[in-house]
Design a protein that fits this description.
By secondary structure, this protein is mostly helical. The chain is built from four helices and no strands.
Length: 54
Amino acid sequence: MSELINGNAIKMTSIEIAELVGSRHDKVKQSIERLAARGVIRNPQWWFSKKSIT
């Protein structure tokens, strides 16, 4: 919580979120895109690794 109070960003990859909540990675990415479009979260910087493609 101190990270939020101090303004430090807490970061997680979409793959980490999918594993944490037990959802498919493509569904997590769709949810992230919807939240960003609504302004709930800041639009994430997308990058792709071999792990996220396979």
